[in-house]
Amino acid sequence: MRKLLYCLAGLIAGYVIGAGLGAAAIQLFSGNTHDKSMELVMTSAFVTGPIGAVIGLVVAWMRGRKR
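RESULT FIELD:
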């Protein structure tokens, strides 16, 4: 049960961090001028957020395994 909670927390934290980093990257590096807000939301929600969630899940699983 403890490992499950660690993994769930890692999944959520990873998604939030990944989405935030993706949004920051789009704001800084995107040359899109007419729909930058849509690009920011879609990239954060469907690309960088899920990548961050998977990374967070793996990190939480590895940390939970050591205990």
